[in-house]
Amino acid sequence: MTTPSRLSLLGAGALALGLCTPLLAQAEDLRFGGNFTDDHSSSRAMARFAETLAEQSDGDLTAQLFPNMQLGGAGENLDQVSSGAIMGSWIGISYLSRTVPELEALSLPFAFDSREDAFALIDGEVGELLDEKLAEAGFVALGYMELGFRHVTNAERPLESIEDFQGLKIRLQPNQTHLDTFRAIGANPVSMDIKEVYGALQQGVLDGQENPYSIIETKRLDEVQPYLSDTGQFYDYIVVVANRDKFEDLSDDQRATLMAAMDEAVAWQRETAAAEDTQARDTLIERGMQFTPISDETRAALREASQSVVDDLREKLGAELVDKVLEELGA
Q: Which pLDDT value is given to residue 29?
């Protein structure tokens, strides 16, 4: 969760209050776009944020939300934030890794054991360092929600051994570490925006994909994917990211009000997402997916096969950052 210390790092470039206030006259200055469906916990959390923001600012600040790809896919939303066309977006953190490569340190394969470890990591020193990198790229991280552990679905076979991954054409997010991991375990990864995935699966262009249970459920991917596994190769975050210039155009009081509203929304989403994770998996099974748990032996083989990805990240991002992540995760 974003902390006051992070906020202070970002305030040095803020404009004087007298120059900022007129910019907030129009509610469109606080537009947020997202690709998650209306019923996803992150979209519901953003709705709570908008309500709290309006209440706590006495209507001085309002947030207009555009979930469910109303303003385009994740990549388009990110471009809109970068250009200042919209205030911000709630987005899978991997979509920012091309702009801020250091974020790939959060994608170490098979390194996370629990969501509690994941939150301790992003709420601590590693998170503060990554916030600074985002700020250098023109963004402000307003908070980190749970997207969750990512699991593989496919239309070919149950995944019982590492050999079962061989040759499967699997859709992934545009994150180089994710792609490299699936190459290392023998699959054929394809980078694709989420808005194209259902159709590609339906048409047989892809064999499978990987996502948290909540996304598999809300995107109705069970309709085109019969096999589900609890591979858990990555833990994924949703970052609520804002255009830094727009954020710094707010007064100190406005920024504080916005961050307080976001902190409450993020805390609610984390708790809600944890409760809904198992429920989403059970719903997918009830809808007819064949669930195959990954054995400890297979998970160990997958971790070993992807060790080269960790070594490559040390060279790409620096051993200090990668080893800091591994140390905090106890890996």
A: 64
Rounded Cα gap, residues 208 and 156, in angstroms: 8
Statement: residue 4 has pLDDT above 50:
no
Question: SS3 for 143?
Answer: strand
| Dihedral sign (CA 260, 264, 267, 273) | negative
Report residue 331 as tokens.
């890996």
Query: In the prediction, which pLDDT does 153 show?
Result: 98
**What span, in angstroms and rounded, lies between the C-alpha atoms of 77 and 63?**
16
What lies within 8 Å, CB to CB, of 274 at 6+ separation is 115, 146
Q: Are 86 and 49 in contact (CB under 8 A)?
A: no
Q: Under a CB-based contact definition with an 8 Å cutoff, are residues 141 and 240 in contact?
A: yes
> What DSSP state is assigned to residue 11?
-
CA distance 181 to 233: 9
From 221, 229, 226, 245, select the one nearest 289 (Cα to Cα).
226
Query: Does residue 16 register a pLDDT over 50?
Result: no
Q: Which residues contact 276 (CB under 8 A, 6 or more apart)?
A: 41, 214
Q: Which helix (H) or strand (E) holds 38?
A: none
CB burial readout 266-296, b (16+ within 10 A) else e: bebbbebbeebbeebbebbeeeebeebebee
pLDDT digits (tens, 9 = 90+) for 26-70: 443 699 999 999 999 999 999 999 999 999 999 999 999 999 999
How do residues 100-153 score in pLDDT, each as one tens digit?
Answer: 999 999 999 999 999 999 999 999 999 999 999 999 999 999 999 999 999 999
Interacting residues of 197 by C-beta distance below 8 A, sequence separation 6+: 171, 206, 209, 219, 221
